[in-house]
Amino acid sequence: MLTSNPEQIQRHIKTHTDRSAMDEAAVSILKTFLRSNGRINTNFASNDKWPNTDGTFEFVTNPTISRQPRQNFFVQIKGTHSYQETDGCIKYSLQSLAFPAYIANNITLDPGILFLVLNPDERGNERVFWKYISANLLNEIDFSKDSATITFFPADEIKNTEESVEIFCKKLSEVLARHLFTNKLNCHSFTRKEVEYIINRCDKEISESIENLARPDEDFDSISEQILPRLDDMCKAALIMNSMRLGVAQPDLKLAWEQSLLNINTKYLSVFYKGLKYIENRVPEAGQSGRLMQKYYNFLWQIRKDLKNSHGIDVLKNLEELTPPIDELDKHYYTSVASSVEKADFSKSYHSNSRYYIQKKVPFFIGTERYYEITLQLAGIYATKYNRLTVYTKEDIPTNYSIQISYANENIDLWGVESKIKIISDWMVSISPTSLNKFAKILRLPCSLNSRYGEYQALMSFLTNTGINLLDFIDLSQNKFDSMIERIYAKSKTTLFKDILVHLKQMYSESAEYTTGKNVIRYLLQNLKEETIEGVLPNAFGKCMNGNLYLASGCYPFENSPLLSDILGGKTTEGHNFRHILNAVGYDGLEEVRPYLTLKNAIKQTGEIYFEQAAISSSDAIDKYNAQLDLWERRNGYSISVDNGFVSIDAYEKNTLFILRTLIELSHIGNSGQKELNNRFLRDNAGVIEDSLKIEAIRTAFVNSRVLLIYGAAGTGKTTLINYISNLMSGRKKLFLTKTHTAKQNLIRRIDNPGTGSEFVSIDSFNRKVNLPDYDVIFVDECSTIDNRSMATFFSKIRSDTFIVLAGDIHQIESIEFGNWFRYAKDIICVPSANVELLSTWRTDDQNLINLWDEVRNHGDLITEKLAIDGPFSEEIGPGIFDKADEDEVVLCLNYDGKFGLNNMNTYLQNANTSSKAVSWQEWTYKIGDPILFNESQRFSLLYNNLKGKIVDIEKNDDMIRFTIDVAMLLTENDCRHTDMEYIESFEESTRIRFCIYSNKDDETDESIRAKCIIPFQLAYAVSIHKAQGLEYNSVKIVIPQSNSEMITHGIFYTAITRAKKKLKIYWSKQIMQDIVSGFAKEVSIHKSIEIVKKKLNLDM
Known about the structure:
Blueprint: H1 6-13, H2 21-33, E1 40-44, E2 55-59, E3 71-80, E4 84-86, E5 89-94, H3 98-105, E6 112-118, E7 127-132, H4 135-140, E8 148-152, E9 157-158, H5 162-178, H6 192-211, H7 220-245, H8 253-261, H9 267-279, H10 288-311, H11 328-343, E10 350-351, E11 356-366, E12 369-378, E13 388-393, E14 403-414, E15 417-429, H12 433-442, H13 454-466, H14 470-474, H15 478-489, H16 496-508, H17 518-524, H18 530-536, H19 556-560, H20 575-585, H21 590-606, E16 611-612, H22 619-627, H23 631-635, E17 640-643, E18 646-649, H24 650-666, H25 674-684, H26 692-700, E19 707-712, H27 718-728, E20 734-738, H28 741-750, E21 759-762, H29 763-768, E22 777-780, H30 788-797, E23 803-808, H31 821-828, E24 835-838, H32 847-857, H33 863-868, E25 874-875, E26 889-893, H34 902-912, E27 919-921, E28 924-926, E29 931-934, E30 948-956, E31 960-967, H35 973-976, E32 982-986, E33 991-998, H36 1007-1011, E34 1017-1019, E35 1022-1024, H37 1025-1028, E36 1033-1039, H38 1050-1057, E37 1060-1067, H39 1070-1083, H40 1088-1096
Parallel strand pairs: 3-6, 13-15, 19-23, 19-24, 20-21, 20-22, 22-23, 25-37, 26-35, 26-36, 36-37
Antiparallel strand pairs: 1-2, 2-3, 4-5, 5-8, 6-7, 7-9, 10-14, 11-12, 12-13, 14-15, 16-18, 17-18, 27-28, 29-30, 29-34, 30-31, 31-33, 32-33
Helix pairs in contact: 1-3, 6-7, 7-8, 7-9, 7-10, 21-22, 24-30, 24-31, 25-26
């Protein structure tokens, strides 16, 4: 913040001091010192200059890649013998303040550097120092005086060595990351002329950078790196211009910010500003600048449009040359979508009564126009992540709250198949009254709002028209808040939620004094999702966090350290949720926890737990982070440990070592008499068990070890071996554990005779139990999907004499949370009878498939050859997707969005099913013959997650839709009694059932009725690769477009291809195939951590 009087600054600019001979000598010395192999290109002047600027230098960040300058620096160069040196610090009296005054006043985007050369005329005794003319330094200068004393510290010295100049260049990069001229906007009121000058300078530099894309030595990422430093200036200047348009002659940034929040057409500026604020003072790593620019291109497009339409300023004329790259397939599709959007007939719009959250919003650009592809997630505590649909619009919908939409259906042609897409004609914010009432319950304030109340409708209208969220709303200045409250409630007869908003402003606004629960309340306000609110409420037997708020005591960790701990019942420290945390609690503590966040992200990306400290953070930053942790956080493993130059997070290390030590101990405890029992079982089952590896595993099971780890590829019979061992241990009490409901149901089907008193439960349910029965044998399946924390809890609960069987495949999709224990155990548990790897594939007898699976699994060199020659398994994306190769067929997609996302693929394939008529229900369409997969449902507990089915009949009226479905499981009439489904008849491998879904009642509070409004299944012409884990099909088609090819990891790809029993086809381009396959080699970790783990476990290397 610049505090000097502008008139005093102007006085210094008008002064003039002749250059001394010492200054001229300093210029020559400085040129010599700054030799840098093309990184610093000087344009100094030894002749006299006014107003005491001595030229410039260009800074090139990496001349081996590009010689395009990243930044120009204004300089002043002073030479002197007159200085004081104390403890290595140099104090120098700057006799003229013209140069700092010029930097303080001049409308320029270029930073200023003051160079001081000591003894420039004494050869061998020259010393060079530098000082960045920052806002803080300018504030330290008293411009009412004629001179100022400048202090140079030892770190400010540039020595005449390559190493020292390299350090100087790194510091210049840091300067660029934080140097933004419009930081002065925070306190300075600018005229329109001045702000236009900033915009024009930004336009000139950004446009010149875009022109350089045509140069052979430039690429999208390097150009993005040049543009990013200019975006903050452009954003803030656009904010100021918008405020001027609203009638404020000389606005400051705070006022301009508030004004942008209160208009939906300018809300994007506040979003842009928040993103830029998050990355300020940080230099993106190599390759990341381009990723940021792909997002920020949308904001630049909107700024260009607004400056042209609202202010008559024409900028960024060549912006289209920076359009994020798109392949020809997507371009053709999105061109068709854009055409449908432009010609949509909104006179035939449908209005949705359902509420949706915006799960994902992706802009795409056709010509000079912008459109959005939006994935909507059905709102409500009974909705699942599979209740999604894709819509299109030209309008940016900026809200975090649930919305209701009106839409028109339009047709597009895809390879000769006519498909319908939904075009939004209108939308409005529509927060469920139930959510608002439950939120009021947290505040212990009475509220029984419903959607028919005028105040509810007025509040939703205000949130729609402004795009603001209630967190930003309560953070408005008091005057602005009061005027908006009056505007909302001017015609309302009730004020139920008004009292709540006023209470929130008083108690939980940014400026309010901190009170316990403030962080939780501020976080919840950003989206008011019912499931999130429900997650923080105390259960029937739980304690409250304090007396003022009805919040569960489990909210304490998040409340105390929201940047480290997840909110109760949710995942808030990752992804977009983390940005919501920063909005709620601010950025003040971010730098302190940066070492932890950096290390946690590195662990997530690599699966390693130890990293070289230099790659993570400095010792001082780690010490500072550890010092601010409280006792609870230290006890729960949030500390960062430093050992022999490597760093780790305590909880990750302790859990990993505890699990592995437990396994080592168990692997050395045998069971007398087990050998004879095993041999008798093998004699009794002679000829039944064909696999020699399974026979050997059974022969030695539990003889010398109480643990048996079973590894094996998909289809090698891991579950079969579990079944054999279960039968071997007949008469014992058994527990079967899995991570997912799908895996649990698979075990239930595959275990012949689990025995009396045996249980099948999820590991999460097991870990939550307080009183546990005594189990003799515990089987844990799909171990690669179970995280370390869950397994550490599991091992802490079991008896030491329990037999343990652990099975899984370390090459398939791994656990969502950090889980490396099963991979490490494969290398560490070396007792032969404790560790078996199954090699023979039983899922298929197709040798080409088996060979491909083995090659991919082992990261072989011939993956490309086997994909192209055997089978062949690869094909360009095209109409072949619609050619059904088998009745038992599935199409696998990675995600839900885009032309070839799950939502659209199901629509395309359903439209290709012309054997029956479409039946619409709400925003979804169903047909007789549709394949489906059931989702986890509280209403239908018998119909487990991932259960296959097929629709055989549909009946519908205004209030209800009735489905008759063949499900791939055997049920009896008695099973269906006292449930919401009707038994029809049974077949050899399936059962026909019938149930009803009812229309949604907006203000319904009866939970059992609300659950009956949710479709419990999803279309399954196409399913996600993640959901397909554990399933198998005769024919599998995998669609991999360019838009998500970067997300295809080795584990995801391997999981996908091993779902096929007979036929496999991968639809992708040649380039995508090459990029993905070559990426597998880069994924092979160097596994430094396993060696450190072995040392800590005192194992011989």
